[in-house]
Amino acid sequence: MLPTGTPPGRAWVDVAVPRPSVRLPGVSMAGFRHRAPALVDISMVAYPSVTLLVDLSEGEGVVYETHGRHERGSVVVGLLPGDLRAAGRGAGQCLQIRLDPVTAAALFGASTELSGTVVALKEVWGRDAERAEDRLRAAASWDERFTIAVDILSRRLGAHPPVDPQIAYAWRRTLTSRGRVRVDGLADEVGWSRKRLWSRFRSQLGITPKRAARLVRFDHAAHLLAAGHAAARVAGESGYVDQSHLHREVATFAGLTPTALAAAPWLAVDDVAWPTSSPAGASAPSCERRPRPRRDTSARGRRC
């Protein structure tokens, strides 16, 4: 997380990622430690996942603000949270877990209630949230924390029925096409009517197929902008009608202009924490023009 006023090139955050052997399908994890004593106030860019943020800081912790609502500490960020900001003061640590919507549905149940919201983890997990925080905070290293997180998630993944195979397939196709697949085409591929696909997709993942495609397409464009590509080129490569269309979508999903989005520190750590986060499976664009965070060698610099 980039502290306000941090000069370019300064190592402002350490990033730790799990070893390849510590992983779960549909789950990506990264640990962050920001060391500057200054105020942290950043805009969190929408991403095609449900995000679990476990605040491991001592003291007041991080405050998340969206739609005029404030949540402090550990939270679950549903799909499409809107204009979301994170603020806090001083050094701190956070475990961020990205869950694809299919996995999130198996972990939390149907995602409809989480979509577009930020809720305290304790509202979702009750007293188990505090127990999870205590276990993670007491761990001696990020390696140990990642192992604990996998154990916690594994115990909960069977608590809810899985989504329909057709819905899981439709989500994967949306990702691999980078949001450029039509709903009618998806319906034909799974053998359903358009109306049935739309209804099941929304009820199980908390988002419509069209909105999901727009979110995935926006994410691809955001990372191209962060890599330093011009907005006009990004618009064409991401499937937008023109540059004005790109501007409107960036404003809708991030509340920013493409220029401001390109400089977002939230994106600057992605090539370190999630270097293969591109929907098509290729390496995410390099953020060469952004100050690079320092990778935490306690986790041996390996990606999940």
Task: Name the features.
about 300 residues, alpha+beta, Jelly Rolls, 7-stranded mixed sheet, 4-stranded antiparallel sheet, 13 helices, 11 strands, about 20% strand, disordered C terminus, DNA-binding transcription factor activity, AraC-like DNA-binding protein, sequence-specific DNA binding, transcription
Please write the CATH class name of the domain at 13-162: Mainly Beta
Query: Based on DSSP secondary structure assignment, what is the total number of beta strands?
Result: 11
Count up the helices. Answer: 13
Radius of gyration: 19 Å
Name the strands of the widest sheet in spatial order: 10-7-4-9-2-1-11
The assembly state of the depicted protein chains is: single chain
CATH topology of the domain at 13-162: Jelly Rolls
- Main sheet record: 7 strands, mixed
Provide structural commentary.
It is built from 13 helices and 11 strands. A hairpin with a 2-residue loop joins strand 5 and strand 6. The N terminus and C terminus are likely disordered. Helices cover 40% and strands 18% of the residues. The radius of gyration is 19 Å and the shape is globular. It has a domain of 150 residues: Jelly Rolls (Sandwich). It is α+β, with helices and mostly antiparallel strands and 304 residues long. The strands form 2 sheets. The protein has a 7-stranded mixed beta sheet with strand order 10-7-4-9-2-1-11. Strands 3-8-5-6 form a 4-stranded antiparallel beta sheet, with no helix packed on it. The chain starts with 12 loop residues before the first strand and ends in a 9-residue tail after the last strand. Keywords: DNA-binding, Transcription, Transcription regulation. It comes from Nonomuraea jabiensis. This is AraC-like DNA-binding protein. One of its GO terms (molecular function) is DNA-binding transcription factor activity.
